[in-house]
Design a protein that fits this description.
Number of helices: 14
Oligomer: single chain
Strand order of the largest sheet: 1-3-5-4-2
Helix content: 40-55%
Shape: flat
Strand content: 5-15%
Distance between the termini: 38 Å
Low-confidence stretches: 170-182, 262-272, 455-465
Number of strands: 8
Order of helices and strands: EHEHEHEEHHHEEEHHHHHHHH
């Protein structure tokens, strides 16, 4: 799991371009934060002389292009990537940072990656030179770059078997705080931990549970039908306000054996089960070696997993039932469009043939009329055989179609043009519907394979409906 944030580096007030770049790179490569520099790497530059190399490339850029953006000139881009405590090593974090920067810049810009280990959480500082490698252009900061960086970071994290954040939200505080920096647990968190420890001791009944709470230093008070507890000199807390598995009803059921909840020794280590597909996928792949991961790895790879995870996330497909309905809807939508195009394809040749018959019928109408007036003369037939037979074929075609009144060629021309235009307009929809159907069906089967929802599922490579 990693959070990301990007900053643009411009000239600091009262400083030169060189001083601004040096300040930022010096902070990133600080030996005290990077294991004496062992956790600093560079791409197309030497990490500890990156400031001078960045500055030289900017001078070369000005010499080649003559462009100077003044105060708006972006010198570099700074990405901070913070990892969940205990989920990765400093060395792996640095690899992930390098891969993130390489994919984001497409290898066209020099950068350094410095992994800091001075906080409770490991985090990367990635400094990207805004000037490209041949000093002829600048990095184009894409629209919604924050989202793009997060997406790339999530993909790389998944490929390394790390978890990702399901619904990332910007933090108003320090960028690593939410990841688990050491802080005093809340009163409710402390109480939940105490309850976990008591439940692990398997109290025989409700009264023994309350006695153990008192032994742990909590004052127990009965308020009507509610029980409140107080500890550490703070105010009373009702058990029902703890919610989930800590309400009075839930605890009574757990103690009596009516409810089976796998408590561990501490509240923080107990992971609440969820029907959310993204949570289930991450439980299967982290850590590696789980049955779900082994099932996946036997058929797929982690890059496919990243695509599956992102598709589910982007399309708000958090429940298997919803995914199944969406997959069926995609098939239905594709079949409707496909069926209509097939109908048009069958009709267009018929129109072409009918147009030909109408033209033939009109050209040979007078000859056939004279043939009939001649009393079906054999001599006349011999002289005009080709036209007479063509006229008969056209008449037979009309009779087979049950046409009581012969349409005009213009009518068919209009219909043909209309159908052809409809087919052309539907073709782009056809390709989009087919691609979406193939993608969601593959995601559905990938999800089923990983989570074991269905046995003997196969990947859909080329869906044909």
């Amino acid at each position: 799991m990693a959070t990301t944030r990007q900053f643009t580096l411009k000239v600091n007030k009262g400083k030169t371009i060189a001083q601004t770049i040096t300040d930022r790179t010096d902070y990133a490569t600080n030996p005290e934060k990077t294991l004496k520099g062992e956790l600093v790497t560079g791409y197309e530059c030497t990490p500890f002389t990156a400031d001078a190399e960045f500055l030289l490339s900017k001078q070369q850029y000005f010499d080649k292009t003559g462009r100077d953006q003044g105060a708006n000139n972006v010198l570099a881009y700074h990405i901070r990537q913070s990892f969940k405590p205990g989920e990765t090593t400093p060395e792996q974090a640095n690899e992930i940072g390098r891969e993130l920067a390489l994919r984001y810049t497409k290898g066209k810009h020099a950068y350094i990656v410095a992994t800091h280990i001075d906080k409770h959480h490991i985090h990367n500082h990635i400094i990207i030179n805004s000037t490209n490698l041949d000093s002829t252009g600048k990095f184009r900061d894409v629209k919604q770059s924050g989202r793009v960086i997060r997406r790339i970071s999530d993909n790389v994290c998944l490929e390394y078997g790390l978890s990702v954040i399901e619904n990332p939200k910007p933090s108003l505080g320090h960028y690593g705080t939410w990841l688990g920096d050491k802080k005093t647990p809340s009163q409710r968190e402390t109480l939940r931990k105490v309850i976990d420890d008591i439940i692990a001791q398997k109290p025989s009944d409700w009264n023994e549970f309350l006695e153990k709470l008192e032994t742990a230093g909590y004052e127990v008070k009965h308020r009507g039908n509610r029980i409140s507890v107080k500890g550490n000199g703070k105010g009373f807390i009702t058990l029902n306000s703890l919610k989930d598995d800590y309400t009075e009803t839930a605890l009574r059921d757990i103690i009596s054996g009516k409810r089976n909840i796998p408590y561990t020794a501490t509240y923080q280590n107990r992971q609440k089960q969820s029907n959310n597909l993204l949570d289930q996928i991450q439980r299967c792949i982290v850590p590696k070696g789980s049955p779900g991961y082994d099932r996946w790895a036997a058929v797929f790879n982690l890059k496919q997993l990243a695509k599956t995870f992102n598709f589910l996330q982007d399309n708000d497909l958090f429940e298997y039932e919803t995914l199944t309905k969406k997959a069926q809807q995609a098939k239905d939508d594709f079949n409707i469009i496909s069926s209509r195009i097939k109908t048009i394809d069958e009709r267009l040749p018929v129109i072409s043939v009918l147009q030909k018959h109408i033209g033939t019928y009109s050209k040979t109408k007078d000859i056939y009329a004279d043939y009939r007036k001649s009393g079906w003369s054999r001599k006349y037939y011999t002289e005009h055989k080709e036209s007479i037979e063509a006229h008969k074929d056209s008449k037979k075609a009309f009779d087979n179609l049950g046409l009581e009144k012969l349409p005009t060629i213009k009518t068919f021309q209009t219909e043909y043009a209309t159908l052809l235009a409809e087919k052309k307009s539907m073709y782009s929809k056809y390709k989009e519907a087919r691609q979406h159907m193939q993608e969601i069906l593959a995601v559905k089967q990938n999800t089923e394979q990983l989570l074991g929802y269905k046995e003997n599922t196969k990947v859909i490579e080329n869906e044909r409906v």
